[in-house]
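Changelog note: in this version the structure field was regenerated for every chain. One regenerated record is shown below for reference.
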Amino acid sequence: LPLAACRGPPTMRAARDDEDGGERPHKKRVHAGRTMGAPKQRSRPGRYTTEGGITVDCAVRAVTEHEREFQALVDSIDAHRGLILESSYEFPGRYAHWTMGFTAPPLVLEACGRSFSVTALNARGRVLLRAIKPALAAEPAVLSLEPAGDDALRGQVRISDRWFAEEERSKQPSIFSVVRCLVALFKCADEPQLGLYGAFGYDLALQFESVELRPARGSDGQRDLVLYLPDQIFVHDIVARDAWVVSYEFSIDELSTTALARAPAASVHVPRAPATPRDHAPGEFATLVERAKDEFRVGNLFEVVLSQRFADECDAQPSHIFRTLRVRNPSPYGFAINLGDAEFLVGASPEMFVRVESDAAGLRVETCPISGTIRRGADALEDAQNIQKILSDPKEESELTMCTDVDRNDKSRICAPGSVRVIGRRQIEMYSRLIHTVDHVEGYLRPGFDALDAFLCHMWAVTVTGAPKIWAMRFVEQHERSPRAWYGGAIGMAGFDGRINTGLTLRTVHIQRGEAAVRAGATLLYDSVPAAEEAETELKASAMREALREASDAARAAKAAGGGAP
């Protein structure tokens, strides 16, 4: 039954067997076999060989002073390449509370368009290049591959001249062919932590869709993909009250990383004032809403998500922004990533993009589309009034209905018939400033499809593009004033055990060359009110911008007092 037929307020019902029903998350996790995004388990110490023939020695150290170790890791992100992921928001059957991170990764995969590089960030990474070079050279999707000194490989992915059915779009040559090659090389079904961690940019989707790029790209060297392969990872499963550091040594032929230091790669934030405070003048976004409504009237679009960018001076270090956000705006996808080249992402995203993990029934893919937003009240009574208001609003219901219908259609391309189900409808998630309505959708992958296929078939979520997706993406390109870069893409991990856990890159501070930018969007429909939609983008951006100002004010105060940046 289409969701469009399921109008009206949600009704109470008994919890399904695979929903939480209110139990403590770690208890439910044990009997359901699902992690809710939390670390699956500790890695097992010992030696194993990946499917690509790489020997891995794994050591695990228990951590008792986990907060001290975590804070040291946060501090190191200011000056060294690395990543922190955190879920500080719990929701029964959906999100658990955990933290993980690393610095000094030995290797990074970066891409811009169809060009890519695999770079050793220290001597340990040079050992890994020994195995990666022949694997990439044998990959049919790689058009060219050449060394760039002793520390890097540079290549180009071919453009296919054959037609691919929609359900096979993830199989065509793209930068993800390189990602898939690396995952296959290091694959080990029993290793729960090792994988590729980082950020996926919005423009990656344009390798699969016919969209003219406006504004033009390339002049600023903006990357579309940054994925690290770490060799030492801090993990804290907060619900299970367990913390550990897992370390890996790699051996390829006669080469080994065992005697080599984990040397970090430097990348430092230096503040500067923004060149342009915002990419839309006040009132201009509302004008674009009117243009979108013209497209709705003639049937070219059903909905579209437009965004605008706000820029601020950033005197604070990324670590301080991260600490401010995790207190002010707990979320299921908190992150701080030092991308190198003085570029950082610090965010508190409320929305899952794609999560894939195995359970007794097979490879389960799940998503949680968010559409429908209202401001938090001053107290619990006003919160309740606002919840009643948003659940009674037909426009908000229509937004989420269309998003979930498109999401289910995405899954149906690669999931087993009958397995795609809405297991949570118009559920309420409450954050520091906002209340959202959320659906929860699951499906089970058909044989021949894996987690990367699931990731690609959803790219990008209808909640950041619109419907129909291709027409919405074209409208975005024609009317937004600046490229989205990382906004609307994803952050997270692709595990070498076949899992994926990613959140949409929303509620994010993008720091680049000393400037801090926040981007926020609104879902537009035929009955959208232009001024209200512009105000919604400003409200969504406000939590990030105020956290940024708070962190920057503290940094300036500390500097004035002679204490340096906090």
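Spot check on this record: Residues 258 and 351 are 39 Å apart (CA to CA). The domain at 42-268+333-506 is CATH 3.60.120.10 (Anthranilate synthase).
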